[in-house]
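Quick one, probably user error.
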């Protein structure tokens, strides 16, 4: 009888997940989690995938949740298996990705007595989850308790601030079902809120403030990483066009689109000092913290009269500490209420003249140079199909994408793990995004690819369409850009560059190709994208030559902008 109640609880919980929009379960094998794993497989509506490595599993679920916009449930056994979810939980917390984590546990009487695979799992993820509950031992309370606890958890994961939630499930042996699959009633609970509907509400004071700010001609919209829809992106681009305010649109904002006021060279305009002579009266910021460090430093120097943070998720992503107003309505919801329709102005044109000049300088250097990291990022971001996903790793790839991705009429959905900005689990995240059914291209450095080699091998076992583009500089090339590289007697090569001689052509199940020119890279991408399986395109990059090319681009832009300003 007790076994029947256990499975009524676990199957009921899974049924509630399905009823409230969860369609994927990512499961790692284990004994104590037997009732959860079997229930996930029994209940219709959940697509179950098995992952041996919990760290990779966590990031796989993260990428899948980002790409589908739906929470994903993670299921594991007790002990350090649950601890291995932590890096993905942290990333989900800071980037606002809904995950529902089910960890199996020993019953209370076995804790702190040396029982195997038993650790303290209560509040295991600390402040990195939106909600935690230690559930009663399954089979010893009415199964409705576990159903309602699951509904409450999904509710917390989805809105008003999406993120991870954790339910800890204690089980006593025996763990096997007494009979077959129990009959599970349909859900009658309808309390889960929609993330999008929660963001539609518009505060009248926010509308009033934005209309007051819109009267200023010299405005700038700064678009940080944001997982927004095409409709929301077009609405925000339309707002920029009506106001005549340029949009500093990093690729992760989904706004680097041609035909409006979005800019692709903002990183360079701030880096070379051009923007110091073009200080706006208003800066309107939305999305997560911008990737572009020169932008942050410029904001701290310029301190515009009005700095407004659009923050419907209440994350307070403002490491500039400039202060100013905080708007809690979403920008796409506010845009239709803005009364000003100014169109292009002299202020707008100044930014676009600089944008065109900087773009010409970039093209001049890259067209005549070797295929290094800047040209790799520019090529990948130009040729990935509109209906694909472009995933990008942290460290240099995300910065190069921000610096060199051009405007496109309809760019691919572009993701990165910018919540905590780590390099761990990026391959698994991209593989999770590919599980959504879209072709996925991952631009990733060699160190980050090696860091998730288990996830790469696991991805090769799955029917996903995933292409990795790996600029291989044999180590941590980003450190060459930092001041520490110029210091003597710091053992730079040993402590920072860390050469490791990766052999990407030996990974089981991965189709490997090495290219050396732009045309070869374009051809390799055209042959891999849209084909099931995992492809890895490797480009050998000399670290010193790559650094020199980046500096040459900066100097070329500085020179052309000085000339442009002189002739005006």
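Nope, works fine. Designed sequence:
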């Amino acid at each position: 009888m007790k076994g029947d109640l256990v499975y009524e609880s676990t199957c009921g919980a899974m049924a509630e997940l399905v009823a409230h929009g969860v369609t994927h379960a990512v499961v790692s094998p284990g004994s104590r989690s037997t009732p959860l794993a079997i229930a996930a497989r029994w209940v219709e509506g959940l697509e179950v995938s098995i992952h041996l490595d919990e760290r990779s599993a966590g990031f796989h679920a993260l990428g899948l949740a980002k790409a589908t916009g739906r929470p994903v449930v993670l299921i594991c056994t007790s002990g350090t298996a649950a601890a291995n979810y932590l890096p993905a939980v942290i990333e989900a917390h800071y980037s606002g990705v809904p995950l529902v984590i089910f960890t199996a546990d020993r019953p209370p009487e076995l804790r702190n007595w040396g029982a195997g695979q038993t650790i303290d799992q209560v509040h295991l993820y600390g402040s990195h989850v939106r909600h935690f509950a230690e559930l009663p031992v399954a089979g010893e309370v009415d199964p409705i308790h576990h159903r309602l606890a699951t509904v409450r958890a999904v509710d917390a994961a989805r809105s008003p601030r999406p993120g991870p939630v954790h339910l800890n499930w204690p089980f006593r042996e025996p763990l096997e079902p007494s009979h077959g699959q129990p009959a599970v009633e349909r859900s009658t609970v309808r309390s889960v809120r929609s993330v999008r509907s929660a963001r539609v509400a518009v505060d009248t004071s926010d509308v009033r403030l934005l209309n007051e700010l819109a009267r200023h001609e010299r405005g700038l919209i700064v678009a940080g990483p944001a997982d927004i829809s095409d409709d929301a992106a077009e609405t925000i681009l339309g707002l920029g066009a009506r106001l005549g305010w340029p949009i500093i649109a990093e690729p992760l904002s989904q706004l680097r689109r041609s035909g409006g006021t979005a800019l692709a060279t903002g990183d360079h305009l701030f880096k070379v000092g051009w923007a110091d002579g073009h200080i706006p009266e208003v800066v309107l910021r939305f999305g997560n913290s911008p990737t572009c460090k020169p932008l942050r430093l410029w904001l701290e120097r310029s301190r515009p009269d009005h700095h407004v943070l659009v923050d419907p998720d209440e994350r307070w992503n403002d490491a500039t500490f400039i202060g100013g107003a905080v708007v809690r309505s979403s920008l796409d919801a506010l845009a239709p209420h803005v009364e000003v329709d100014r169109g292009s102005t002299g202020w707008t044109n100044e930014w676009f003249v600089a944008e065109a000049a900087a773009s010409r300088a970039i093209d001049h250097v890259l067209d005549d140079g070797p295929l290094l990291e800047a040209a790799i990022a520019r090529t990948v971001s130009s040729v990935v199909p509109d209906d694909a996903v472009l995933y990008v790793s942290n460290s240099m790839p995300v910065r190069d994408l921000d610096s060199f991705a051009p405007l496109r009429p309809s760019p691919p959905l572009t993701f990165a793990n910018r919540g905590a900005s780590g390099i761990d689990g990026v391959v698994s995240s991209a593989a999770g995004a590919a599980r959504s059914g879209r072709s996925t291209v991952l631009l990733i450095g060699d160190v980050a690819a090696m860091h998730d080699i288990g996830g790469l091998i696991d991805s090769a076992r799955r029917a996903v369409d995933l292409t990795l583009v790996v600029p291989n500089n044999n180590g941590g090339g980003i450190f060459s850009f930092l001041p520490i590289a110029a210091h003597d007697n710091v053992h730079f090569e040993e402590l920072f560059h860390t050469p490791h001689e990766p052999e990407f052509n030996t990974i089981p199940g991965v189709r490997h190709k090495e290219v050396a020119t732009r045309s070869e890279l374009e051809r390799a991408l055209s042959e891999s994208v849209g084909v099931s399986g995992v492809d890895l395109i490797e480009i050998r990059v000399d670290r010193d030559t790559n650094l020199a090319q980046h500096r040459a681009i900066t100097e070329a832009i500085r020179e052309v902008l000085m000339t442009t300003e002189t002739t005006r």
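The two ends are 85 Å apart (CA to CA).
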